[in-house]
Design goal:
The protein is of the alpha/beta class. It has one domain: 2-Layer Sandwich (GMP Synthetase, Chain A, domain 3). Helices cover 30% and strands 23% of the residues. It has three helices and six strands, in the order βαββββαβα. The strands form two sheets. A four-stranded mixed sheet has the order 1-4-5-6, covered by helices on one side. A hairpin with a 4-residue loop joins strand 2 and strand 3. Helix 1 packs across helix 2. The longest helix is centred in the middle third of the chain and has 15 residues. The protein starts with a strand and ends with a helix.
Length: 107
């Protein structure tokens, strides 16, 4: 899992909360699935820009997962606006799953 950020401390807080956001079809959280690509904190604008992906472009739970991710970040950073962008470049693959996630999935 390589999440690009400009604040390691805030990113750690964000990722800890995002571990509560589950992919209901797989049963694993978005962090361990490797779906979070970038979390950037703009102190001046009070915004958090998040770039994430889904396991497929046609994921039927995509909207609920992105909404849950946004809400999770709002819990930790209530004074900031969350701007979440979905990307499919690079496309997600199972190699992006963390070691903990692979153990959970028995891979």
């Amino acid at each position: 899992m390589n999440v690009t950020t400009n604040s390691n401390i805030k990113c750690s807080l964000a990722l800890a909360e995002l571990q509560n956001v589950m992919d209901p079809e797989i049963g694993l959280n978005v962090v361990d699935l490797g779906l979070i690509y970038r979390i950037y904190f703009d102190e001046a604008e009070h915004t958090i820009s998040v770039r994430m992906t889904l396991t497929t472009q046609f994921c039927p739970m995509g909207e609920s997962m992105t909404d849950a991710a946004t809400q999770a970040l709002q819990q930790v950073f209530p004074d900031d606006k969350v701007q979440l962008t979905l990307t499919f470049d690079p496309a997600w693959n199972s190699e992006m799953i963390s070691e903990e996630g692979k153990k959970y999935l028995n891979k």
